[in-house]
Design goal:
- The complex is a heterodimer of chains A (400) and B (290).
- Chain A is of the alpha/beta class and 400 residues long.
- In chain A, 44% of the residues lie in helices and 18% in strands.
- Chain B has a single domain, classed as ABC transporter involved in vitamin B12 uptake, BtuC (Orthogonal Bundle).
- The longest helix of chain B has 31 residues.
- Chains A and B meet through strand 7, helix 7, helix 8 and helix 9 of A and helix 1, helix 5, helix 10 and helix 11 of B.
């Protein structure tokens, strides 16, 4: 009986070994033939092409594609063309991990690009780090760039900086007090700490601070309570639905402030469609705007419009910028040595369509900042900082 | 002082919104004993249809109410006729089968909505202002939803208690066998009831999307919220659902003000647990009701 059991275990183990061997062959043998030195440089990533989270990610993929096309038109990198190898992660972090595993060990791509957004990027971070592959990452949270993932560099504005310029604009008008409403999730929480730091630095005071869960749909009591502190500025560390909810609650209860500003929300076209006239006068921040006077932006906007039939958004711009920066680093190094590419990236100081790209020694983005837009007559206008503005900010906010 | 009056008013008005969203479910569950897990997705579908009618045809949510309700009525009838009628009922297994069927339906509805409208939050700018009443500002949109909820509750009550079709529906719910032996066409009656419940969900969505932005995945939360509400009131009991909705609205607004929004979102479930512990039949429910 015991012998029989032992034999069965042995049999199972042998079968397992055979499977492993087959997988090893499948993983190892096939790409060896493909990884020719004179073929294109293959750059892999997973992108959320389908599912509810796909719209921003598709912008990102289009940004990568346009950058690759331009790089190839200019003669490629190291004398080779570049080619993007991308798979659909459907917005699922565990799928993204499997796909990066495939990209690294089966497809054996030469370089990696980032998925969108933070959840997916964080999920693949340990794997990418173990494989010692450089990845310009499109995750805004600062946690991944404190040194534990040395091959990740941040290619998007870091979260605490998202609303800095909006606070700067408020301070420039002499506004003193802020009511801060924060969605109780990771990104807005981190963003709110940045707002508080910026407010203190600019001599403003946060007189009201309250967080709310992401499922909140009724903001009436929260906004009423915030209004009792008579803040000059009502600031939301929010996404789209909650920023609309706060504006609605303020208007429906006739609660006024000199300025209303939100992190993510007003940047989306749906904000204006959903709120109509109530959107006018509200400020939001963005990491990019088509009218920016940044390096190569006019060409980028024209090229994007021609290729994809729509104007680029900030996801497209930072993705485009990240591939351009990566290609430049490879050119400088002269090979695909990942450690050298990382060091070259850390030493990079360059202007992209999204702004000035510069990294801290641990890969944290310390160059990119954000821009302030305002809904004016049913359209978004870039209003701050002044040297980038396409319209003057309309302040103070009139009574509803 | 103004503040506490304003808060109570807000609570009562939000109660009306919650009631509006739960009424269709109350009809379908209360009368037919079918748990419609696609209820929230039908609300979202109605809202998104109203959004399209607003964005492309220029209809306000009030004028869109009838066409949206008609579309959802047809959809509800098709679902009952094509799916739920064909599932053998009876016993715990039958209940599980309808539960799974409506669960599947919720996926079909939300993913079809995704293909048509995408994944972004949508909303309609409508009745966003405030009615001034001395120092009080009464949100117009909330008021409109509360009035609609009240009107819908009255109409359904009238239909169930004063018309032959409504009485037949209640008879079918009490005893399908007895109703059939009296010559009632119970199949047709159930189709009408489910269609009506779906139409009420769609109509609610058309109004509420002007208050709360909807996204295709909003449906699940709305189903849970609506189900908790009708269970709190006593399943199928209209007055009970109304009282439960007002209590919820008040509890939610007052706790958001005094205890903070993080606790406010838990109040609905804390209340629910309390009711389950001390009054498992619901506030106005009858024990042992079938």
């Amino acid at each position: 009986m015991a012998k029989n059991g032992c034999a069965r275990t042995m049999g199972r183990r042998a079968a397992g070994m055979a499977t492993l061997a087959a997988m090893w062959l499948a993983l190892g043998a096939a790409p060896a033939a493909r990884a020719a030195e004179d073929g294109p440089i293959r750059i892999g990533c997973s992108i959320t092409e389908t599912g509810p989270y796909s719209p921003p990610a598709v912008f990102e993929l289009q940004g990568y594609r346009l950058a690759a096309e331009e790089i190839n038109q200019a003669g490629g990198v190291l004398g080779r063309k570049v080619e993007i190898v991308n798979y659909d992660d459907q917005g699922n972090p565990s799928t993204a991990v499997q796909l990066y595993q495939k990209l690294i060990y089966s497809d054996r791509v030469d370089l990696l690009l980032s998925p969108y957004e933070t959840d997916l990027m964080s999920a693949v971070a340990p794997l990418v780090t173990r494989a010692k592959k450089v990845m310009p990452s499109l995750g805004a949270n600062v946690d991944a760039f404190q040194g534990q993932f040395p091959y990740l560099v941040q290619a998007i504005t870091q979260t605490p900086r998202y609303m800095g310029p909006a606070i700067d604009l408020a301070a420039s008008r002499g506004y003193k007090t802020i009511a801060l409403l924060i969605q109780n999730t990771q990104f807005p929480q981190q963003l709110a700490r940045g707002i508080e730091a910026e407010a203190t630095a600019k001599g403003m005071r946060v007189v009201f601070k309250e967080s709310f869960p992401p499922t909140t749909t009724d903001f009436s009591a929260l906004v009423l309570k915030a209004a009792e502190t008579h803040p000059d500025v009502i600031v939301g560390a929010t996404y789209l639905a909650d920023s609309e909810g706060i504006v609605r609650a303020a208007k429906a209860q006739n609660i006024n402030a000199r300025m209303f500003a939100f992190s993510i929300g007003p940047v989306e076209p749906e904000f204006g469609r959903g709120l109509g006239d109530a959107a006018n006068g509200v400020f939001g921040t963005t990491l990019y705007f088509p009218t920016l006077h940044t390096a190569g932006n006019a060409e980028f906007v024209a090229g994007f419009q021609a290729k994809f039939g729509r104007a680029p958004d900030y996801h497209a711009a930072v993705a485009y910028g990240s591939l351009k920066v990566l290609a430049e680093a490879v050119r400088k190094v002269g090979s695909l040595d990942q450690d050298k590419i990382r060091d070259a990236l850390l030493a990079t100081s360059v202007d992209t369509v999204a702004g000035h790209f510069q990294l801290s020694p641990t890969g944290l983005q310390i160059g990119y900042t954000s821009y302030v837009l305002q809904w004016q007559n049913g359209r978004q206008a870039l209003v701050w900082p002044a040297d980038q503005a396409s319209a003057a900010p309309e302040l103070p906010h009139g009574a509803w | 002082m103004v503040s506490i009056i304003a808060l109570v008013l807000l609570g009562l008005l939000w109660g009306g919104v919650y009631l509006l969203m739960a009424e269709g479910l109350n009809l379908i569950y209360g009368v037919m004993k079918v748990v419609n897990l696609a209820h929230g997705d039908l609300i979202v579908l109605g809202g998104l249809l109203a959004y399209t009618l607003f964005a492309h045809v220029g209809l306000t949510p009030i004028t869109a109410l009838l066409p949206v309700a008609l579309v959802l009525f047809a959809l509800g009838a098709a679902v009952q006729w094509g799916i739920l009628e064909r599932i053998p009922l009876g016993g715990a297994e039958g209940e599980l089968r309808t539960l799974l069927a409506t669960f599947g339906l919720s996926y079909v509805v939300s993913n079809t909505s995704f293909l048509l409208w995408g994944g972004q939050f949508q909303s309609i700018p409508f009745l966003q202002g405030a009615l001034r009443l001395g120092p009080l500002a009464i949100p117009e949109g909330l008021l409109a939803c509360s009035l609609a909820a009240f009107a819908a509750a009255l109409l359904v009550h009238f239909w169930l208690h004063r018309t032959i079709a409504g009485k037949a529906l209640r008879a079918t719910a009490e005893s399908p066998l007895g109703a059939a032996s009296c010559g009632l066409e119970i199949r047709r009656i159930r189709i009408i009831a489910f269609a009506l419940g779906a139409a009420m969900a769609g109509g609610a969505g058309a109004l509420v999307i002007a208050l709360v932005p909807f996204q295709i995945s909003s449906g699940g939360d709305l189903t849970v919220q609506s189900f908790t509400l009708i269970a709190l009131g006593g399943l199928g009991n209209y007055l009970g659902a109304w009282i439960a909705a007002e209590i919820l609205g008040l509890a939610e607004v007052l706790s958001q003000y005094y205890l903070g929004p993080d606790i406010a979102s838990a109040t609905i479930y804390l209340l629910f647990i309390a009711v389950l512990l001390f009054r498992p039949q619901g506030l106005l429910g009858r024990l042992g009701r079938i």
